[in-house]
Design goal:
Length: about 280
């Protein structure tokens, strides 16, 4: 029997081209005027190499298991995460989340991303008062398109300056981003040993290089599995081997560690469980 999910808004929006090497995308979420159960008001996220800022335009939320609360009008910074995590909304919400490549946000702010692993805090406490002003403008905007335009108009000249005026990179898959990060870390600065390169990667992106490669490989594998599932010919053993895993069990163990579910379970839950909406729009 086909599961009918509630008619909530969950949408991924791509950034403008000059910001494609800085912003991975925008997640729009609205449950306004949609009756949901308590379970459907959960939001499940995977471990991630990305940083984010979420604006609570309407409603509130909390990080399950921590007691941390985001109230209406707050802007919440989230660092890269080493494990899957869940948030809960007690009532209807409307949120806008901007997803940053961690090394880009490091270039913009100077933050040591290793210190931001698994953190959530008020955005202005982490990023400074300059970001408080842009948050106020985002909250005052009349609709999501205007909010995204405000963010991009503010960020584009700052990102141009942070990357030294070089031509912007195009959007790239996660695996290619990780490889470019590793090459840049090895070629930067006076110390070019493997240990120094690893320190740079962690300062720029939070995670060690090995974890970044695992995260990219799981994302690549789940995208391939979803496409094959939609085509009606999914073979997880073939997906695993093409992605560089030793076998299907290796893929399943890694996916479970980084998402909380095996690939087959995750595909089922994305189709049947409203709380997996972030996976549905991303993977």
């Amino acid at each position: 029997m086909t599961t009918v999910l509630p008619p909530t808004l969950a949408r991924l929006v791509a950034p403008r081209v000059p910001l494609a090497s800085c912003i991975r995308g925008y997640m729009l979420r609205s449950t306004l005027d949609v009756p949901l159960t308590a379970g459907q008001r959960l939001n499940r996220f995977p471990a991630t190499p990305l940083c984010s800022i979420t604006w609570m335009i309407v409603g509130s939320g909390e990080l399950v298991g921590s007691g941390a609360v985001a109230r209406q009008g707050d802007a919440i910074f989230s660092g890269p995460h080493t494990q899957p995590f869940t948030t809960r909304n007690p009532g209807p919400v409307h949120t806008l989340t901007v997803l940053f490549l961690a090394d880009a946000l490091h270039a913009l702010t100077g933050l040591d991303m290793a210190a931001q692993l698994d953190t959530m805090a008020a955005a202005h406490d982490v990023l400074g008062d300059e970001w408080r002003a842009i948050s106020a403008a985002v909250m005052a905007a009349p609709h999501d398109d205007a909010r995204i335009r405000i963010v991009e108009d503010w960020l584009e000249p700052r990102w141009h300056a942070a990357r030294g005026g070089t031509a912007p990179d195009a959007w790239r898959p996660a695996r290619d981003w990780v490889q470019a990060l590793a090459v840049r870390a090895a070629a930067t600065g006076a110390g070019r040993s493997a240990r120094m390169a690893e320190r740079r990667v962690r300062a720029w992106a939070g995670h060690p290089l090995r974890t970044l490669r695992r995260l990219a490989r799981v994302e690549e594998s789940m995208l391939a599995a979803r496409e094959e599932h939609q085509a009606g010919n999914m073979s997880l053993s073939d997906v695993a081997l093409r992605s560089g895993y030793s076998d299907q069990a290796h893929l399943s163990r890694e996916a479970r560690e980084l998402t909380g579910n095996s690939p087959r379970e995750l595909i089922r839950l994305v189709q049947t469980d409203e709380s997996y909406w972030p996976y549905r729009i991303w993977w």
